[in-house]
Amino acid sequence: MALSVSAPTSSSLLPASFQVGRWRSSARSAKPGAFSLRRPVLAARVAAGGNAPSSSVGEVVTEFDAVVSFSEIVPDTVVFDDFEKFAPTAATVSSSLLLGIAGLPDTKFKSAIDTALADGECNTLEKPEDRMSCFLTKALANVGAEMAHLVPGRVSTEIDARLAYDTQGIIQRVHELLKLYNDHDVSSERLLFKIPATWQGIEASRLLESEGIQTHLTFVYSFAQAAAAAQAGASVVQIFVGRVRDWARTHSGDPEIDEALRKGEDVGLALVKKVYAYIHKNGYKTKLMAAAIRNKQDVFSLLGIDYIIAPLKILQSLEESVTDTDVKYGYVPRLTPLLGKTYNFTEEELVKWDQLSLAAAMGPAAEELLASGLEGYVNQARRVEELFGKIWPPPNV
């Protein structure tokens, strides 16, 4: 994810001490990053008991104002320069972000990468692949620490997708990153670790959460993955609504998707609704994030979910659309905790998930989309390491 825009009075991306008020950046130039943004225009209104937006005399209410009174919005971009419009409160650090930083001619985050490439511990490693992996880890932590000093909320850090099927490898990498962050005076309360939702990743999440380390599970394309992640205690689960829908348009034979189609439902939105109901029916702490949003109607259909990652063009359209209380969408939450009381699950869906049951229940859509997502992340990490190999050692360090 990249930027985030929001107005709810509390957020799992914001530590409790930062959940009130608005942080402003003095920056004006483009800053690469995955920021979470908070916009409290309607927060007081919602806290006072209001559900739909209402206008006082002379107040302009946009569709964006209405949307952020129900869900936290995360703009899907790597570089964002309109800090006056969307003040950042949290960030995500990834291989794609490092590539973006490396491609910018002048950014303060460049020095964070140069410092990583000059790290003495990494330089002592004999194997080039070990050295580059060490540089990548240091660079993620260095840039993440810079972000943590710029924003009051949490920083989510990508875990190398090459570790996706290695539980202990994931845990070791998280501990390495956590130590590096602590060395930069960034506490674990300020951090999330973004882990692929393989069974090994879900198991790593369970063990890390038991230590008080917060995890963010990504590449979730099936109910089984999400349910297993919630049982593991993951802090955030990210479902790719549009990617599931795209798969269904050109494929068939996935039982979960076929069932939604028989009911006349949108397969991506149906998956989110089912997972949301499951989380609230069972009282899990997990927050739900919807990604791969394709249009404004997706946003309206997801109101009430914890987080929505949306492209900037959709957010700009919402911002430019002035509305009132009598609009056709009604601006009411489509997802509420009451959904958990009305949703009926089968015995198979309420099991205690393990590796075998997860593998049997995922279906071809989740299997193919998970493999594709991991491949993309692995390629990004390799591109970063190849770039580091070309510029190492950095000049003047």
Structural overview:
This protein is of the alpha/beta class and 397 residues long. It has one domain: TIM Barrel. It contains 17 helices and 11 strands. The strands form 2 sheets. Strands 2-5-6-7-8-9-10-11-3 form a 9-stranded mixed beta sheet. It has a two-stranded antiparallel sheet with strand order 1-4. Strand 6, helix 7 and strand 7 (191-196) form a beta-alpha-beta unit. The longest helix has 29 residues, at 363-391. The two termini are 32 Å apart. Belongs to the transaldolase family. Type 1 subfamily. One of its GO terms (cellular component) is cytoplasm. Its EC number is 2.2.1.2. Keywords: Cytoplasm, Pentose shunt, Schiff base.
How would you briefly describe this protein structure?
This protein is 46% helix and 13% strand.
Name the features.
17 helices, 46% helix, Transaldolase_1, alpha/beta, transaldolase activity, 397 residues, two-stranded antiparallel sheet, TAL/FSA, schiff base, Aldolase_TIM
* Order of SSEs: EEHHEEEHHHHEHEHEHEHHHEHEHHHH
> Any idea what the CATH architecture is?
Alpha-Beta Barrel
What portion of the residues fall into strands of 2 or more residues? 5-15%
Quaternary structure type: single chain
Largest sheet: 9 strands, mixed
Enzyme class: transferase
GO cellular component, one term: cytoplasm
Family: Belongs to the transaldolase family. Type 1 subfamily.
Pfam family, one: TAL_FSA
List the helices and strands and how they pair.
Elements: E1 31-32, E2 34-37, H1 43-47, H2 63-67, E3 72-76, E4 79-80, E5 88-93, H3 95-102, H4 109-117, H5 120-123, H6 128-150, E6 155-158, H7 167-183, E7 191-196, H8 199-210, E8 215-220, H9 223-232, E9 236-240, H10 241-250, H11 255-262, H12 267-282, E10 287-291, H13 296-301, E11 307-311, H14 312-320, H15 339-342, H16 355-361, H17 363-391
